[in-house]
Structure formats: C-alpha cells, structure tokens
Amino acid sequence: MSLGYAEKLSFREDVGTVGMPEIFDPPELVQNKIEELAVMVQKSKHLVVFTGAGISTSSGIPDFRGPKGVWTLQRAGKGVPNASLPFHRAVPSLTHMALVELERAGLLKFIISQNVDSLHLRSGFPREKLSELHGNSFKEICPCCKIEYLRDFEIETIGLKDTPRRCSDKNCGARLKDTVLDWEDALPPEEMNSAKEHCRSADLVLCLGTSLQITPACNMPLMSIKNGGRVAIVNLQATPKDKKASLVIHGLVDKVIAGVMSKLNLRIPPYIRTDLVQLTLRHSLKKKCVRWTLRVTSIHGLRAPLPFIQSIEVSFPERPDMKPVVLKEQPFSLQRETSMNRSFFMLLKLNFSDGCSCLSSSIGWPVDFQKQKDSFVRDRTLVIRELQCAAEHESCAGQQEILERECLPRAETAIHAIVTNIVSYDMGDDKVPLPRDSGMNCGSSNPAKRNMEGTGCYPASAPKKLKYFFLKDEKLNC
Questions:
Q1: What is the pLDDT of residues 226-235, one digit of tens each?
Q2: Stated pTM of the model
Q3: NAD: present as a keyword of the record (predicted)?
C-alpha cells in the first residue's frame, strides 16, 4: 500500500472495520499449522495465492486496518503513518520472494493481489501469472494500444487519469494513463476475469495478509470451495471468511511462509534490484572548439525522475585542465567547451539515495569527437540476468553493464543497468530484511465495483492487459 496512494484517494467516511486486534496463535500451534499448510501446498495441483497489504508491512509499508494502519490512524485523526523507506525504495518481503520460488518450482500457478505497491513485479514474479485488481502505483498504460509501462518512480496520479508521458510506439503516441483505482472506479474486467477463472480452477487458495473485507475481491477465494477446493488464511486479524476456511493461521506471514518453505525444502532467493540510467552526450562545433552537453536522465525521459540517484560526481582523470564538478539537481546536466582534437576520459560517480544497498557506482566514458563509435543493442533480459547472477554470487551491489549504445554524428546515448540492491532472507528470522550496505563506492456496460463487505463503500480499475513492456519497446520477461 502506497502512502501516496492513500493521500490521493478521494475522501470516504466509511472504510469498513478498522483497528481490529491482532491475534497470535501459540508457537506450538503455529508450528503444527505450518506443517499442515506445507502438506496442503505440496499436494495442491492448482495453487492460487491471494495477497493483501499484510505481506508488505515487513517491507516498511503500513497496512490499512491494523492497529497502526492507514485508515485506523486516519479515523483517529492522526493522519497517514510514516513509512520506514521511500515507497520507490521498498524491497519485496520474504513472502514476496518465497512466492517467486514457489512459482519456479511449479507449485504456484497464479497470484491475485489487492496491493498497488508493485512489489510482486519487483520480486520478479511473471506478469502473465499476476492479477493486480486495484492497479499499480508504478505502472502506466496506453489507452489505445494497451501497452503497459512499468516505472521505477511512483506515478503522479490515481483514478485512471492522464499522466505527463506518451506511448513510445511510433504508430501511437497517445497520452498514457495511471492504473490505480479510486473508490468509484470499476474493477478491471480482464484482471478480475482471470482471477475468477483461476479461483474456480484452484484446489487451494492461500490468502496472505488480507482482512478479506473488500468485495467483490474477497469473495473470489470462496469460488474454489464451490468446486471442491479449499481455502487457507494467514493473517494477524480475524476475517469474515475464517469459518469457511479449512485452515486459519494467526501469525506473521513471513514467519509462516518461511516455515512452509523449509518444510518443502525450498530456498528463498535473494532480492536483487537493477536500476537503469541513460547517459547522453551532444556536441556542436564552434570554430576549433567543441561545445558539448552531458545529460544523465531516466530512460523514461527528461520529465521522469531518477529516484535512486542523489548526486553525480563528474571528473576527468587524464585531463587536469578540466575541473571536476558535482551535479545535484535533476535532470543532471553539464556543459563544457574543449578542443575538438583532444580526447578525454570522463568518470561519472553516481551517488545513490537512501535505501540502496551500496553507496555509489562509477561509469567510465571515453570521449573522442573525431572518432565515430559503433551503435549496438544487447539482449537486455540476458544481460540483466547475468548481472544479477554475478551480484548474487559475489553478494556485491554497485556492479553495472551497458545495455545499448546509439551513436549519431553529433550525439551518443548509452543505457546502463546497475545493481543497487541485494537483500538476503533468513528463513529462521521473522524480522524485517534490510538492505546490506556493501560499502561500495474504453469500458464494460455493467462494470463490477469493489466495496466494503457490509458497507456502501467503493474503491477500484486497472487497464486491459495485452502486452507488457518495460522500457521503450522491450518486453519484460521476469
């Protein structure tokens, strides 16, 4: 749950039951239930997981209805709670990464999520096996060609409004829209239909960290029961569906899932975040000199922020006549003049923001205005995968690789991928996993709406999912 999302939502007096007491089953009972759940998961042929805000609390994102939840505090007149990290720097929890491994092992077939925090996608869970019922605060969509764009910054609006960016498809160029629903927005038909289909096919629906109060979403898990399936619930608070569940565990989701993974003899993979940055050098001739401009921007354009970079130190190690400079304002830009006949080596030290598991990373850039470099595009998915594998093996953030370079007569653009986070998870520890500091320098005629069970409230519609694009025209293959 995004705090920005909570603040952007339209005011709603009745948001359902909030501030419910937390329940903790005795340790021995929890262990017995974990063993029972592990057997249920192992025997399942079509496991579906239904997630709520409770799986992201250990990532530093407050829930809605807990004792310190967003709506609980708002009702008490205390405003929105503080998050331990900026929303865009939150990392997937142990549970998020365990679900990735369960899918890889062939046990988990589909996830239905009510969350808008994008942590399922950041974890590497396949988009085609995920239904985001309430949208995604980091995703935009083209209303014309339906291409989805996943960003590394929070989209400025909610309620399916226009954003400042346009579709990058050369044949389209339409204004993009956000995907997060406000209270009166209709649930996205395609997301909802795929979720229902999988619930009907499921022999087990595992509900994690959700109070199961928002309809129609909360009724989806029960569809499995009608077809002979079962429902299991892991949540710290009682839910309206507990009596219909085959198993209810009152405990920390991370601790329960870690226990299940241990019983299944499955590891929980580390989370490795890779951010992307675009470097552009443009120049123009001025007599015997060259006036050149360096820009370091988001791959999403000048108007998109680079939330993971705090400042950039630019130096010229082989040219004492060229003074170093520190760039502190975005978009990062530097203008200089130099002799056209003299090449130089430019070193850029990217200083990262809080929440990154490394302090900085450096990119070297040889510049020769009289020599034309070759353009190339590497297999983005392969390069990033190799970069992340190397980072996991060496437990070292700050590593970077060039993904593509485009060279024109008077301009050069390069895109680099940089590992900024490596988070490991201890299956025997239910504490919050923190980043390690490596020290390195158009619509339905009868749309369904979501509302609170037993109330007259409505929050929710994400766009139609046809294609999923990450950057420019590159597909995202998690």
A1: 999 999 999 9
A2: 0.82
A3: yes
